[in-house]
Specification:
Blueprint: H1 2-6, H2 10-18, E1 22-27, H3 38-44, H4 48-51, H5 62-67, H6 69-80, E2 83-90, E3 96-107, E4 113-122, H7 124-146, E5 150-154, E6 160-163, H8 165-171, H9 175-178, H10 189-204, E7 209-211, E8 217-220, E9 226-238, E10 241-250, H11 252-274, E11 278-283, E12 288-291, H12 293-299, H13 303-306, H14 317-332, E13 337-347, E14 353-365, E15 368-377, H15 379-401, E16 405-409, E17 415-418, H16 420-426, H17 447-459, E18 464-466, E19 473-475, E20 481-493, E21 496-505, H18 507-551, H19 555-581, E22 586-588, H20 589-603, E23 611-617, E24 620-623, H21 624-644, E25 652-660, E26 665-671, H22 688-699, E27 703-707, E28 712-718, E29 724-725
Parallel strand pairs: 23-25
Antiparallel strand pairs: 1-4, 2-3, 3-4, 5-6, 5-10, 7-9, 8-9, 9-10, 11-12, 11-15, 13-14, 14-15, 16-17, 16-21, 18-20, 19-20, 20-21, 22-24, 24-29, 25-26, 26-28, 27-28
Helix pairs in contact: 18-19, 19-20, 19-21, 20-21, 21-22
Length: about 750
């Protein structure tokens, strides 16, 4: 069969052998090389002697030869009458070429396989170019696909020829729904005509640039929603001509942020403008960028006179150098701070200087960091502080000069101030007390009570006497205790409210009071003994007179004895009233009248059913030397009423009244009995009692008026400049009534 393949037309053979750009050779049915041309030697590096007779697998890479690929290719060619493929082939030196391989079977007239003719063309350079182009296109495709923004490539006809995943997400379309469609599908209807015109103009002079500079651009989603976009155009040269790659960014969030920023800036501007303090914004170069109305008023400049000027224009010249240095230092480390601890002074337009307090706040702007300065004119505060300082100094001097101890105590219960008298009272130097807890000078048994009083005082401040009505002690340095009275009050300090205690050492007073109390107790004991003895003696005299009266038949003598008894009882009543009132200078005359009436009613055995007695007496305190004659007058007049006003069982009423008016005291004794006879004269012997009444009235400097009948009334009126109304304050009020008599 090899001979048949070799035999052929000589001209055809010569032509094949001279082809240099392709390797053309024949194989027998088993795949052995039968012929070899010059193109095979040039392309694969083997001469005819080196390859003829060898199996065609020698031209395949080793891994393909071992896998049986050469045999499969020949079988495919024999079965399909042709086999065309591209693949790697092996050169003599071991290098590889990328080859276009074509295998054709050769058959005789009967169809029997005679062998194969094989043609190999070296496409290594073309493959390298194609691979590079493919890699370039792949990189471009990958770059577009992985771009963070939506990317769409559009041809001259305005159709979409490529897009990435971000474009699908942004517009809500699948890739197939956009690909090959006009790009105007993604543009709101009202902008489409203008966009076509601009697209045509762009391709007339294609160059990379941003789209729609200076105006708002909008795109259209699949659901019909519009959104603002920013578009960058880049020209891409392709085989089909220039195309444009559009990078599309949804700037909805940016627009919202910008609008929010504008609103925020406007709010900031309004806040600055409406601030109650002067507000000045200064750049890092020290230029005034913004001021508010209050700053204009504070410095006396119009706004236009301040904007753009150095901030040092509102600072006194002697401080400007230092201020520039501090401004540079602030911007080197910008942070919120309060400038205090030293006197700051600002300068008005008219040259007036005034003290200020300044707060600095760094703010970030598009032009960089700036400082917002809040400026407060503290002229009035300085004036108040100076006034407070002088007031505190005066207060300190007053405290120091006080004739009693003064201690100022803080809310934390620390001693803040003491005076010289306190040092004297407690035996401490003031340096030993200042800053110490108050417990240091309070005996342990009083500390709980003091803490309660202090907390109550700070909770509801008021003038609070400490130790009044009880005992309170302080502890001296030597450990001894002193009895004190202290008044607590609240004072306002810069550090807050404090308690000031005015302290009086009452130790000596307490000793005197104790001695006086002992003397009073001794006096009371002696007076009690005297009262007891006088009472007993009066009782003895009264009893003797009563016994003697029982044996006397003479009416005149009996009347005299009865009169003596009445006077003794009156003396006893006055004595008892003085004792019970615990006041030996004055007598409660109202109480005395009540007791006198009860005694006389019993003495004369008055039937209350026949003679009613009414006493209406104000509580009037009379000096003893006035009360005794006044009581004698009352005794005489009441006795006369009982004895003479109601003869023969006649019924009636006796009324005793004691009142005060602007002139003095009025004692009135009235009865509705038979009245005084017309010939009743005080000078006559039978009316001796009335003469005694007249004499006693003159003794106390009073006047006596008499109404003889309907009703009978005696009115005693006398001045008393030393009298007083009310009950005794020195002792308890004693009960009135029958039990008040000593008899």
């Amino acid at each position: 069969m090899s001979n048949k393949l070799v035999e052929g037309d000589d001209i055809y053979r010569l032509m094949v052998e001279r082809i240099l750009d392709s390797a053309i050779f024949m194989l027998d049915p088993d795949g052995l090389v039968v012929t070899w041309n010059a193109g095979g030697e040039r392309i694969l590096g083997c001469c005819a002697q080196e390859i003829v007779g060898r199996h065609v697998s020698a031209l395949y890479p080793l891994e393909e030869a071992r896998s049986g690929k050469p045999e499969r290719d020949l079988l495919a060619a024999a079965a399909q009458s042709c086999f065309d493929a591209a693949g790697w082939r092996l050169r003599k030196d071991g290098s590889r070429i990328w080859a276009q391989v074509s295998i054709r079977p050769i058959r005789d007239e009967d169809g029997d396989l005679l062998g194969f003719v094989t043609l190999i063309r070296d496409l290594t350079d073309q493959k390298r170019s194609l691979d590079e182009l493919w890699r370039s296109q792949d990189r471009f495709q990958r770059a577009v696909e992985s771009a963070p923004n939506a990317m769409i490539m559009i041809n001259r006809a305005g159709r979409v020829v490529m897009l990435n995943l971000q474009a699908e997400v942004l517009f809500g379309y699948t890739r197939d729904e956009i690909f090959a469609h006009p790009v105007e599908k993604l543009i709101p209807a009202r902008f489409r005509k203008r966009h076509r015109e601009e697209r045509i103009a762009f391709f007339a002079s294609p160059q990379s640039r941003p789209m729609g500079a200076g105006r708002d651009l909008f795109a259209l989603k699949k659901d019909g929603a519009e959104f603002p976009v920013e578009i960058g155009l880049n020209v891409i040269e392709t085989d089909e001509g220039p195309m444009v790659l559009a990078s599309i960014v949804d700037i909805t969030a940016r627009k919202e942020h910008e609008e929010a920023l504008l609103r925020s800036q406007e709010r900031f501007r309004r806040a600055v403008e409406s601030a109650p303090n002067a507000m000045v914004i200064v750049s890092h170069k020290g230029r005034i960028e913004m001021v508010n109305l209050r700053a204009e008023e504070l410095f006396g400049y119009a706004r236009g006179e301040l904007i753009g000027r150095p901030v040092e224009m509102v600072i006194p010249e002697r401080f400007r150098g230092r201020h520039r240095h501090e401004r540079i230092s602030f911007f080197a480390n910008p942070e919120k701070r309060q400038i205090d601890g030293r006197d700051l002074v600002a300068l008005k337009k008219d040259g007036t200087e005034f003290p200020v307090e300044i707060s600095l706040n760094p703010i970030e702007t598009e032009e960089g960091t700036m400082v917002l300065a809040a400026i407060i004119d503290i002229t009035e505060r300085k004036r108040r502080e100076e006034s407070l300082r002088r007031s505190n100094e005066r207060f300190r001097l007053v405290v120091e000069a006080a004739p009693s101890g003064r201690i100022v105590i803080s809310r934390a219960d620390r001693i803040e101030l003491v005076n010289a008298w306190t040092e004297h009272i407690l035996g401490y130097q003031r340096a030993e007390l200042l800053g110490q807890r108050v417990d240091k000078i309070i005996p342990e048994r009083f500390r709980v009570e003091y803490a309660r009083i202090r907390e109550s005082f700070f909770a509801a401040p008021r003038l609070w006497p400490l130790g009044e009505g009880g005992e309170f002690y302080l502890l001296r340095k030597d450990g001894s205790e002193i009895s004190i009275e202290a008044g607590l009050n609240l004072i306002e300090y810069e550090e807050g409210p404090m308690l000031i205690a005015a302290i009086v050492d009452i130790t000596e007073r307490k000793r005197k009071e104790e001695r006086l109390q002992a003397a009073l107790e001794e006096r009371d004991f002696l007076l009690g003994e005297i009262h007891h003895r006088v009472k007993n003696n009066l009782q003895i005299v009264s009893s003797v007179l009563r016994v003697q009266s029982a044996n006397i038949q003479d009416a005149a003598a009996f009347a005299v004895l009865r009169k003596c008894q009445d006077q003794i009882q009156l003396i006893g009543l006055i004595h008892e009233t003085l004792r019970r009132g615990n006041n030996f200078a004055r007598v409660d005359f109202g109480q005395l009248l009540d007791s006198l009436v009860d005694v006389l009613k019993r003495s004369y055995d008055i039937d209350s059913g026949r003679i009613a007695v009414s006493v209406a007496a104000e509580p009037v305190l009379l000096p003893t030397d006035t009360a005794i004659p006044c009581a004698q007058v009352a005794c005489e007049l009441i006795t006369n009423a009982f004895k003479h006003a109601f003869p023969d069982g006649r019924r009636g009423t006796v009324t005793i009244s004691l009142v005060t008016d602007a002139v003095g005291i009025i004692l009135s004794i009235t009865d509705d009995g038979m009245g005084l006879p017309e010939d009743a004269e005080m000078e006559r012997a039978e009316w001796a009692g009335l003469r005694l009444v007249r004499l006693l009235t003159e003794q106390i400097g009073g006047t006596l008026s008499i109404r003889r009948a309907n009703p009978t009334r005696f009115i005693l009126q006398f001045p008393c400049t030393t009298c007083a109304t009310g009950t005794f304050e020195d002792g308890p009020q004693q009960p009135r009534g029958p039990d008040s008599s000593i008899f």
